[in-house]
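Predict both folds.
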Amino acid sequence: MSKKKKQNTTKYAGSAFAVILAALLSYFPISKQLNEQKTVNEPQNQEVEVEQSLQQSNDISLDEAVISVQNLEIPAKLKDRSEKILKRSNYTVSYNRNWNLPNWVAWELNKDETRGKNNRNEEFTSDPDLPKDNQVESWDYSGSGYDRGHMCPAGDNHFDAKAMNESFYMSNICPQDHELNKGKWNDLEIACRRWANRYGELYIVCGPIIDKRNGKRIGKEHEVIVPEKFFKVVLITSTKPVRAIGYIFENNSSERPYKVHTVDEIEKITGMDFFPNLPDNIEDMVESRYETSDWRWYN
């Protein structure tokens, strides 16, 4: 090969190499920039999946958290009293076979469940899933002076015929003062349906508070303890911040039979642990406070 031709070949090879090198140098900064931009623009997943990892959620603030947990309404297992868990289509009951009452009844109430065409059937029935000795009958309350007071109300079950029928199981019922049952207790039930319509869904736990020393009894065949008080706790996770509140109701005819509490205070009074499936940092914050202005429902 001639010297001139060799020089030309070298010249062309050098030019080609320079073009390739320039393309590579221009690609990497752009690629890096695109990757950085993609990272910045990707939405941050703030949903708290408790069943996957509670620890990962501990750095999420109360204002940021979007809670997505199955059975969020279910309290922790009780260790100091009789407990039989009964699953219904729209609620869960922890039944105390020594009291013939629920320890608690828990359910999620969403917007769609606040309406429906299934009317109250008004027929209270014994719970077929309990032993015969614990199958309290409607007539056990007859002549007692107490209403058959729903824990999970019929008004939360109009959306489904089976759910409505199950709400009249006597395992969902407690002896309740008539004025309380038709008054403030009912007012709070209505308010919960209003909140469910406004916020999409909420989680509710309620039940009796028993004086184990002096509890009054009623019953024709099955002995039923009369509660001195009732509790109700409500949790809303769709708001920012997440919020919760608790109430204690006296089982009497007083004009203002209830007091407002934090969930922590209700836990101390009842000996129960509510909403244990919340991430620990969220549970600690939401159960230790409430804002009265967030929960207007009473006169």
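Second protein follows, with its predicted structure tokens after the sequence.
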Amino acid sequence: MIVDCPPNLGVTTVNAFATCRIVVITIECKFEALEAVLQLMHTLKRVTKGRAGIIPYALPTFLERTNVSRDVLKHIQDQFRHLCLPPIHKNTRIPEAFKARAPIGSYDQTSTGALDYMTTARELLNHLEAMPSGGTQSTAAI
């Protein structure tokens, strides 16, 4: 099951943390986003009371062709190591799809954004299938 949570630490997100085994943390490739991740990780540990087995994946988003964006991506990759999913590049088709209230894969399946999300989904599924339980764990996406 996938639980898509709002981008805040409200009741829905905290409840998802308490019940899920896997958390996908979206992180914009900006330095201010890195500070928020530290708070989020602290909350995650507190809510799960150190429960063993919770797996936090990082999903870098809004990757641009700037030195700052690349530096942030490197920091995310260093911090999360093999739990860092492939990045989602900044792409004009993603906000267009949002405005049209359509998934990016339906709106423009050949766009960079759609291809990035497909690559990320495949990578996450490969990780889940490799888990000892066969990937039958709950997932929270925030």
